[in-house]
Amino acid sequence: MTTKTMTSESIGFPLLLALLITSTIIWSGINPVFPQVWIAEIIPVLLIFIPLVLTYRRFSFSHTAYCFMSVWLIMHTIGAHYTFANVPFDWFNNLVGSERNHFDRIAHFSIGFYAFPIAEFLIRKGHCKPWLAGLFGLTAIMAVAAGYEIIEWWYAILAGGDAGIEFLGSQGDIWDAQQDMLADTLGALTSLIAFALIKPYQK
Fold first, then answer.
1. Buried b / exposed e across 135-169, counting CB within 10 Å, b at 16+?
2. What's the whole-model pTM score?
3. Which candidate, 24, 32, 35, 27, places its Cα nearest to that of 82?
4. Max alpha carbon distance in the chain (Å)?
5. Which residues contact 1 (CB under 8 A, 6 or more apart)?
6. Nearest C-alpha neighbor of 150 from the set 170, 176, 177
7. What would the pLDDT profile of 18-64 be if each residue is shown by its tens digit?
8. I need a labelling partner for 104 at 20 to 30 A (CA). Which of 56, 86, 94, 95 fits?
9. Using CA atoms, how far apart are residues 103 and 79, in angstroms rounded to an integer?
10. Over the stretch 55-80, which tens digit does the pLDDT of each residue have?
């Protein structure tokens, strides 16, 4: 799409997603449960969303990649408003028969979806072959997952109190960090299976 003339059809879908994400961010910032936690949680959303908007005309991903990226942006923004442990998600928790709020686990799974655009970018820029791009996408997500868990631990120690606990979001699970990283990895593998089937770099 970077070498083609952009049409209203090609721009329309990413624009719709951008408007949806923007409205979710605005809603999220209205009376969040923990304002301090909201600021900390919304920063990574903005660090990804704003560059995607600003660089769209220089490099535009496939619609599938934008869909994958939007899932995490929206879920994380919702989690920022309520804090992840308190997002209204009882329907799913009851479905799996768990007293724990699994919204954060699903959100971590959606982080893995970024393996798709990472692989797409590398191939379309001609940096490597599809299999190596997929491997890099997987390992990049695993590295980000581990790094984010360290950031959560660091912030929880610095903030302390309820804000630190809510940002950490472990909900008393001693294996929370490990299970979050596993969810990230499984999300990456899922998106890479889709990547192998769809082959967006051939379109």
1. ebbbebbbebbeebbeebeebbeebeeebbbbbbb
2. 0.81
3. 32
4. 53
5. 10, 60, 61, 62
6. 177
7. 999 999 999 999 999 989 889 989 999 999 999 999 999 899 999 99
8. 56
9. 8
10. 998 999 999 999 999 999 999 999 99
Give pLDDT, residue 169: 56
Cβ burial, residue 41 (10 Å; 0-12/13-18/19+): buried
Amino acid at position 174, single letter? I
pLDDT above 70: percentage of residues in the chain: 86
Residues recorded for the chain: 203
- The CA R_g of the chain, rounded to the nearest whole Å, is 18
Tokens found for residue 23: 């409205």
Q: What is the DSSP secondary-structure string of 35-63?
A: HHHHHHHHHHHHHHHHHHHHTTTT----H
